[in-house]
Amino acid sequence: MADHADKTCLLILPRTFYSFARMFGNALRELGYDVTEANEEYPENPVGKVIAKLDLEVARRITRRVVNERFLTGKRYDLVVIIKGRGVGRQLVADLKAHADRVVGYHFDALAYDRATERWAEGIDRVSTFDSRDAKDKGWPLVELFSAQAPPAEVEPIRIGFSAIMRNHSNRLAYLDAVVRALDIRPEDSFFYIFEQDIRSLAWNFLKQPRLYRRWRKHIHRTPLPYEDYRRVLATSDFTIDYAHDKQTGLTMRSFEALASGAKLITNNPNIARSPHFDEEHRVVFEPGDDPATLALEVAALKGKRPTIKWRSVTDCLLEIIGEREPPQAV
């Protein structure tokens, strides 16, 4: 960590989204910033989440008032970083510009799911996205995500042939089932952990696919896998199975965590083939409707081979977000 912070930064982001606040905050401190942290929407409670998710103007008015009162009045910053910014509006961006030398933003979701960034992007100095389709459509820099974990000190031996650790949403369970059937994966050669966000998602997912849900019920849980168990499973897996949101074209954090762990990825996202961070040794693309026989051949060609480990850190991502480093070009 920097011995002395001679620059100031206001970091606006969803503070409860995994450990993003801690990770981005620490990365900024490593770059020499004294970091002040604000939530992306106010009030910072379930009501605030609901009105912001519904994209109501009242959410932007409240957020603007709170941010001005708590973080802007009588203060000035060298840098403001807005991550996603669901409660941010054009007027707040104007306020931020009046209190900062530079304002940048980053969207780690697709505009097809959350269009908030598009609303305020025009008013800031630089905006980037993790989603390749949005980057192309909007002319924004494509800044891919990162791995929250550093590579292991020593590459661990393969103990698990195939793993999948995922929250149940969209068509993830159906995709996992298709991969398992295509490869004839056996229980003794696999580790599968699917968790439900809450009781409502559990009920909805069951009603949507009851037969499939019953078939996978032994692998479905109400809580996420503890982080150390997740890290261990990924580090000892030959392949891990990942499914991107249906409307997203960006690569998931799981993709980069597999890259840093030495696990190969089976994914539905064809854009991984264009990422400069992944080579053919790192991934197999299997989209819904693809030939299962081709998947089996591609997996067999890579089976048991540890690919080159690469680590893209949160600092790598942050440097591209703030424009101190240009992101590598897609291939």
From TrEMBL:
InterPro entries the UniProt entry points to: YkvP/CgeB_Glyco_trans-like (IPR055259)
Source organism per UniProt: Alteriqipengyuania halimionae
Location of the Spore protein YkvP/CgeB glycosyl transferase-like domain: 215-291
Protein name according to UniProt: Spore protein YkvP/CgeB glycosyl transferase-like domain-containing protein
Source domain of life: Bacteria
